[in-house]
Amino acid sequence: MAGTDKRQDPWEGGPAVILVKPQMGENIGAAARAMFNFGLTDLRLTAPRDGWPNEAAFAMAAGAEEVARAATVHDSLGGAIADLTYVVATTARGRDMAKPVLAPHEAAEELRRRHEAGEKVGLLFGGERSGLSNDDIAVADAAVTIPANPAFSSLNLGQAVLLLSYEWMRSGQAPELPSSGRGDAQPATKAELLGLFEHLEEALVRSGFLGIEEKRPGMVRNLRAMLTRAELTDQEVRTLRGIIVSLERAEPPGK
């Protein structure tokens, strides 16, 4: 449908959209166009297969080329979400992980509430072939699953971004939602949380708790998911890291 009117002021901002290991430039461009249709402009890429900048992406963006050209590229997911405090991961499959699973409109409303409270939030999308890994989803605060025909539920990347971007726009028309009840506390950024995770995991390896190497990846994912669900504040992260340091310095019993 035609509908471009350059006399209008464009909507800008909203949640960051993070594409993890996207493959085809055309799909990145389609995602950028879907974002701009509904006022999202912060596009982040981790390790795009075909490199960046990508002329195929810019051509496919068709009217949203500036969103695609402004995309930032990151070597890792941690770098892409470092400044965010709340991230929702998109997945079509059930996961063996204790994490809230939201419908698209619920995810949009929660993102909207936090965004309007001053938090930096994001939507996480996996690559075209296999989607997000369990490790990717472990660092998200919630998952969103798009209901679709069970016999054909696979959406391409542009479609998935379009649907969640549309729900984001619709959430702005909803009644004001209640606050999170945090008071003046600031939610921890993903960089602060990842620092806590790595600090704790290193200490647990040294203590022997994570000593069985073949079991370590699953235990680490569960620990990260558990701490993510706690929605820690920046002060709580500092306190927990101080506790870890204190325990590391303590003398073993009997010495």
Describe the protein in words.
The chain is α/β, with parallel strands linked by helices and about 260 residues long. It folds into two domains: about 15-170, 3-Layer(aba) Sandwich (Alpha/beta knot), CATH 3.40.1280.10; about 190-250, Orthogonal Bundle (Helicase, Ruva Protein, domain 3). The chain is about 45% helix and about 10% strand. It is built from ten helices and seven strands. Strands 3-2-1-6-4-7-5 form a seven-stranded parallel sheet. Helix 1 links the parallel strand 1 (about 15-20) and strand 2. The chain is globular.
Compact summary:
This protein is α/β, with parallel strands linked by helices. It has 10 helices and 7 strands. It has helices at residues 25-37, 55-61, 65-69, 77-81, 104-116, 134-138, 157-171, 190-207, 216-229, 234-249; strands at 16-20, 43-46, 72-74, 86-90, 101-102, 121-125, 142-144.
What topology emerges from the helices and strands here?
Elements: E1 16-20, H1 25-37, E2 43-46, H2 55-61, H3 65-69, E3 72-74, H4 77-81, E4 86-90, E5 101-102, H5 104-116, E6 121-125, H6 134-138, E7 142-144, H7 157-171, H8 190-207, H9 216-229, H10 234-249
Parallel strand pairs: 1-2, 1-6, 2-3, 4-6, 4-7, 5-7
Helix pairs in contact: 1-2, 1-7, 5-7, 8-10
